Amino acid sequence: MNQKLNQYVEILSQQNRVLRGLLELTREKKQYIILGEVRELDGLLKKEAGLVMSLEALEERRFHSQGELIHLLGAAGEESGASRLLEMVREKGFSGVEALQEQLEEMQAAVNMLKLLNRENEDLINQSLAFIQSLEEAVTRGGASTYSREGTMVDSKSKLTILDRKV
Fold this sequence. Notes:
The structure is a single chain. With 167 residues, the chain is mainly α. The protein has a single domain (2-140), classed as Methane Monooxygenase Hydroxylase, Chain G, domain 1 (Up-down Bundle). 74% of the residues lie in helices and 2% in strands. It has 4 helices and 2 strands. It has helices at residues 2-35, 38-72, 82-92, 97-140; strands at residues 146-147, 153-154. The protein has a two-stranded antiparallel ribbon.
């Protein structure tokens, strides 16, 4: 049982290493988004895809290992989440409960931070797109124009410029 538990904790540790790598890349992405460095951002996205694939493989291993542990602890059919596993290991008095708790807490913190950083990056991208759209509208005066019978230009949109808009 202790060997299985140690294997599970090692899988969590590996997942946490990958999550730390994803966090680092996400922070770098933020800088590239701010600076508008598309090529560098594209390279980071490729690295990120590789890390996500590694994380998926580790998650599959973790899920399988977690199921085995739950079964060995005699709780097959019950809730089989990581927090329930931690509770059961603590109740049974197995060694390694501190390491398990530490890895689970680290994972939760990393996932929460990733969510926050991804939300910030999404907001930055949306702001950038809105800015580009407002520049385009300012340059083109908001779209297609038509001409009157006299040959003068008639614009259906108001004549706003970039200075008239909130960006």
